[in-house]
Design brief:
The chain has 536 residues and is α/β, with parallel strands linked by helices. It has 2 domains: 265 residues, Aldehyde Dehydrogenase, Chain A, domain 1 (3-Layer(aba) Sandwich), CATH 3.40.605.10; 195 residues, Aldehyde Dehydrogenase, Chain A, domain 2 (3-Layer(aba) Sandwich). The protein is 37% helix and 20% strand. It is built from 14 helices and 24 strands. The strands form 7 sheets. The chain has a 7-stranded mixed sheet with strand order 15-18-19-14-13-21-22, sandwiched between helices. A 5-stranded parallel sheet has the order 10-9-8-11-12, sandwiched between helices. A 3-stranded mixed sheet has the order 1-5-4, covered by helices on one side. β4 and β5 form a beta hairpin. It is globular, with a radius of gyration of 23 Å. Bound molecules: succinic acid (SIN). The site of succinic acid has 9 residues, from loops.
Length: 536
């Protein structure tokens, strides 16, 4: 059956450095060898930042006259890279090259495509410490989050290879009218695929759509977010060293105009966008205006948790704390709203405030840091506005609430992880903030908590903490979200992993209805052709 399903296998057991050791659910890692490897990788990455990077078009390294400079969110004195700014002509050239090579790539036996993607996964795995070092410098990821991002990229690539192998390729024999006919269902690529990726997971959220698109025979033009472009360039280099032909993958860096031109290009046949709701919906409405084409948008979240009076409150507070503040709240899956049954409310809030107060905020390269910087000063501005909105509405800052500028941190974008309560008509309950900021409020029942949890345009992830199976079942039946968790200390709403939790949103959080790292994801990248041959 060609549905890319397979028997669950462990993606936690492969890999030299990280898999089996680091996922987003890893609570802590005491392995000295792992820390030494990360530190060596970080030193290697530090020695290589600040370079000027070209566009990658058909194997050509194209340096443009116009460039932009990316600085580290840890320290604005650190230049991460100088990136080429793709013009309209550069985007057109990349699409033309991808289009020209696509038939050859599609004609390459799928087993060869699998072999290349597997080699790329092996290279990523071997180079994990240095790649993680780059991610800490570029995005401000703490070491476990940085290692996890690379580890997840490896897991995505291997997962899709496994699915294609288990499906035995892209062809299924169908029934027949009689002896004279043979019939097949053949899954075929759409053609040229545009991938527009976000800053927060420069490896994983590029490796996932890129691997799926390439494995299924599409060629790819990648436009990474301005911040986080280094991850895509490093990945493209890895794919190339793994033997991917130059015509199969192209990278254009630059501003929104380049992304807009690419997504709307006549010769692009499908688009994957990961990022904000506003941009995703704009692309969803406009990309296929001229002709039908798949537009896979993974958008934001305003992810809720509901805590019932029967819950283990320490576990609930830990799970919320980790999901609200991991990666400084800059995950689409971050937990930003918590509804607590009234009898448990005060104790839960006290526990959450205590745990939040204990968090180490600071330079993410340090071993003990959990919360590093937010990505830029715009995010710091959003944080300040949210804190102000709570105060103006007569709410309470329960923990945090300040921008952090102690010592060297003054040169970075650091804010305190923050817990608030505020009237529920305050905008902070509705708008995705992408900073470490969570709002809590009491509710009278599980059902009221679920109603409020569902009262959002989004539907990405959600969590429940409850002491009875009946409550968990009720929550799962009624909650409108693509990824749901019960009683998870490692993260109330975050930390999905390929092969374990397919990651995709409902409602305003996603358009495809199929989660990445899950059995249905690759289906978005192919279209079916029914083939009948008559032999009389
Ligand atoms: C994300 O893509 O924002 C994070 C995935 C996760 O935490 O599950």
């Amino acid at each position: 059956m060609l549905d890319f399903r397979g028997s669950p296998s462990s993606y936690l057991l492969k890999g030299k450095y990280t898999m089996g050791k680091i996922t987003y659910a890893t609570m802590s890692a005491d392995d000295p060898a792992l820390h030494q490897a990360y530190e060596e990788g970080l030193a290697a990455a530090t020695g290589q930042i600040g370079q000027t990077h070209p566009l990658l078009i058909n194997g050509e390294k194209r340096y443009t006259a116009e460039t932009y400079t990316e600085r580290s969110p840890i320290d604005s004195d650190l230049v991460v890279g100088v990136y080429s700014q793709a013009s309209d002509d550069d985007v057109d050239d990349a699409v033309a090259a991808a289009r020209a090579f696509q038939p050859e790539w599609e004609g390459t036996p799928w087993q060869e495509r699998v072999a290349i993607i597997r080699r790329a996964a092996d290279l990523m795995d071997e180079e994990t410490p240095t790649l993680a070092g780059f991610l800490s410098l570029e995005i401000g990821k703490n070491r476990l989050e940085a290692l996890g991002d690379v580890s997840e990229a490896v897991a995505f690539a291997n997962y899709y290879c496994d699915r294609l192998e288990e499906a035995g390729g892209m062809e299924t024999a169908m029934g027949a009218y009689g002896v004279g006919d043979t019939n097949h269902s053949v899954l075929r690529p759409w053609g040229v695929w545009a991938i527009i990726s976000p800053f927060n997971f420069p490896m994983a959220l590029v490796a996932s759509p890129t691997s799926a698109a390439l494995l299924t025979g599409n060629t790819v033009v990648l436009k990474p977010s301005n911040t986080g472009a280094l991850g895509s360039l490093l990945l493209a280099d890895i794919f190339s060293r793994a033997g991917l032909p130059a015509g199969a993958l192209h990278v254009v860096t630059g501003g929104d105009e380049a992304g807009d031109r690419l997504a709307h290009h006549d010769h692009v046949d499908g688009v994957t966008f990961t990022g904000s709701y506003d941009v995703g919906m704009y692309l969803y409405r406009t990309v296929a205006a001229g002709r039908p084409k798949p537009v896979v948008c993974e958008m934001g979240g305003k992810n809720p948790a509901v805590v019932t009076a029967s819950a283990d409150l320490d576990l609930a507070a830990e799970g919320v704390m980790r999901a609200a503040f991991g990666l400084s709240g800059q995950k689409c899956s971050a937990n930003s709203r918590v509804y607590v049954e009234r009898p448990a409310y005060q104790e839960f809030v006290n526990l959450l405030a205590d745990k939040t107060g204990e968090i180490q905020v600071g330079d993410p390269r340090r071993r003990d840091t959990f919360v590093g910087p937010v990505i830029d000063q715009e995010a710091v501005g959003r944080f300040r506005s949210a804190v102000e909105a709570v105060k103006e509405a007569g709410g309470e800052i329960i923990s945090g609430g300040e921008v952090v500028t102690d010592g060297d941190l003054e040169r970075g974008n650091f804010v305190q992880p923050t817990v608030v309560t505020a009237p529920e008509d305050t905008w902070i309950w509705k708008k995705e903030l992408f900073v470490p900021f969570v709002a809590v409020t009491p509710v009278d029942s599980l059902d009221e908590g679920i109603d409020k949890a569902n009262d959002t345009i989004f539907g990405l992830t959600a969590g429940v903490f409850a002491g009875t199976d009946g409550e968990v079942d009720r929550f799962f039946e009624r909650i409108q979200a693509g990824v749901v968790y019960a009683n998870r200390r490692a993260g109330s709403t975050t930390g999905a992993w390929p092969d374990i939790q397919p990651f995709g949103g409902w409602k305003g959080s996603g358009t495809s209805g199929a989660g990445s790292g899950g059995p249905w994801y690759m289906r978005s990248y192919v279209r079916e052709q029914a083939r009948t041959v008559i032999r009389e």
